[in-house]
């Protein structure tokens, strides 16, 4: 629950993505990640399907399968690769990745399990506040550990575990603007 005076937002109801093959998506999310398929919908007029998976804590991950959907464009509609393996920038208004919260004490076990299931996983990333934002060794400044992998459509996924709580000292950067981005691009 947030301290927002305007809205009692309790988290995400669902995040909806688009897949190219609903059967393959169901196989991956149900059989590899273990997400329960909780709702299926045939869209009106033969337009497609909308399926929902339980992602834990009352959150759902949903997928549309549209008959007329265009193929995604790696590097534009989603990252081309995983951090540590190649380019992971995506276009404005695209979904860059989804990070699932996992328990710290099972983090490395989950990575091994995905690898055993044939999923190509990226290296473990220990995120800290250093200039590179990545620690080569664990220390008290590492605030989250994560690794990245992709679903069958190339959607970038992450398993992440928080290692500490955030405080006022963690918010110290001024938000950048679209004008600044354009200046950087044109420089």
Automatic annotation (TrEMBL):
Residue ranges of domain VOC in the record: 11-162
Gene3D superfamilies linked: 2,3-Dihydroxybiphenyl 1,2-Dioxygenase, domain 1 (3.10.180.10)
CDD domains hit by this protein: VOC
Taxonomic superkingdom: Bacteria
Transmembrane segments: none
PANTHER family from the UniProt entry: GLYOXALASE FAMILY PROTEIN (PTHR21366), METALLOTHIOL TRANSFERASE FOSB (PTHR21366:SF31)
Protein name, entry field: VOC family protein
Species: Gordonia hankookensis
């Amino acid at each position: 629950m947030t301290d927002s005076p305007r809205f009692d937002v309790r988290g995400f109801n669902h995040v909806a993505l688009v897949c190219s093959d609903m059967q393959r998506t169901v196989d991956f999310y149900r059989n590899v990640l273990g997400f329960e398929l909780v709702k299926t919908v045939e869209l009106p007029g033969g337009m497609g399907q909308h399926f929902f998976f339980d992602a834990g804590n009352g959150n759902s991950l949903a997928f549309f399968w549209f008959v007329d959907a265009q193929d995604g464009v790696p590097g534009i509609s989603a990252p081309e690769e995983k951090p540590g393996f190649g380019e992971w920038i995506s276009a404005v208004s695209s979904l860059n990745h989804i990070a699932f919260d996992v328990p710290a004490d099972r983090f490395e076990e989950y990575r091994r399990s995905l690898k055993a299931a044939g999923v190509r996983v990226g290296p473990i990333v220990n995120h800290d506040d250093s200039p590179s934002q990545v620690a080569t060794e664990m220390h008290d400044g590492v605030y989250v550990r994560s690794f990245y992998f992709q679903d069958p459509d190339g959607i970038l996924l992450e398993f992440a575990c928080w290692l500490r709580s955030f405080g006022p000292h963690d918010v110290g950067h001024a938000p950048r603007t679209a004008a600044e981005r354009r200046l950087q691009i044109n420089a």
